[in-house]
Amino acid sequence: MFASFHVNIPFIKALQQMPSYIKYMKELLTRKSSLKGGQTIVMNKECSALIQTELPTKRKDPGSFHIPCAIRETLIDKGLCDLGASINLMPLSLMKKLQINELMPTDVVIRLADKTQKQAVGVVENVLVKVENYFLSTDFVILEMEESPIHPIILGRPFLATARALIDVERGELILRIHDEQLAFNIFKPSQEVDQENKEPRENHNKALVEETSIEAQNVHLRIPWLISKTARRCHS
């Protein structure tokens, strides 16, 4: 009858009732093995890497990545390229300055870094962003906010995917692969230094950039309102 009888008691109490077992447990837990001469110790990969100093050199924050671009007649010296942004962002004040009137309603709510949320004013589609000699069609979410004097616009993942961007953080290099050409931008090189090295070609390029943007971008935007109004009517219906 009592062959399968079990009593559950705390392990400490069981040890207290068996003095000889307590002595055995103390010896087992406090026993330390000493290293003998000529003994070989095998270490795992992690410990070996630390001892052999094979870890890469730690580097500091290189800063934000940005590119010069233009929208219509407005030159933007530093458009912020942000892989952490799922949208392309433009302040409402800049949209008015660019005289873009094709604003589409949206229910997008933007969550900021301080955990606050802001309702977007709307969306503008097919804005032509010119980088060097290429136009990239870009959709911007419009937000009523203070315009940054350093980074007026944020070019998020949609733009970077369109431009097939490659970012080398160590070198501070951002490469846009447009068609068969690669455009490289280095954030470690100040724009003033670039201007001093190649001042005249840069000035000529900027003048051509403004003229081409003024003519080509406006011509394309003349065709865009019809597409937008058609899309808007389809959404309302």
From TrEMBL:
Protein name (record): Aspartic peptidase DDI1-type domain-containing protein
Organism, scientific name: Arachis hypogaea
Lineage of the species this protein comes from: Eukaryota, Viridiplantae, Streptophyta, Embryophyta, Tracheophyta
Entry-linked PANTHER family: RNA-DIRECTED DNA POLYMERASE-RELATED, TRANSCRIPTION FACTOR INTERACTOR AND REGULATOR CCHC(ZN) FAMILY
Domain of life, per lineage: Eukaryota
InterPro entries reported in the protein's UniProt record: Peptidase_aspartic_dom_sf
